[in-house]
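Data card: per-record layout.
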Amino acid sequence: MSDVTPETNSEPNSTSTTEAPSISDRASEVMSQANEILGKVDWTQMGKYGKAAGIVAVVIVAQIIIKVVIDTINFFPLLPGLLELLGIVVVGQWSWQNLTTSEKRSAVAEKVQNLRKEYLG
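The structure for this 121-residue chain is written out next.
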């Protein structure tokens, strides 16, 4: 028992910490390299391409989120049928309120024409 000293047990621990860098050190090194690379980019030239890439990225993320929501709704067996029924009721109610008389129909057609002129020119 007297042959084993605590000094021999502490040596492997001290050498293992000096050999491998910690995760936070490695992360800070990667972030500093990324900052250096991004600092070299001329961002004034990236306006048009950056906007296009941003729009594409937003559209892709929106499509993924919509797909997840729709898949979640379809997971419940009763919910898609109820939502379809709700859509039919809303369209029916809107049609009843806006398309029953010729004055209301002409007002809807006028609104559509105004929107076409406003957005399409």
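Known properties of this structure: Residues 78-121 form one domain. The first helix runs from residue 6 to 19.

See the next section for split statistics.
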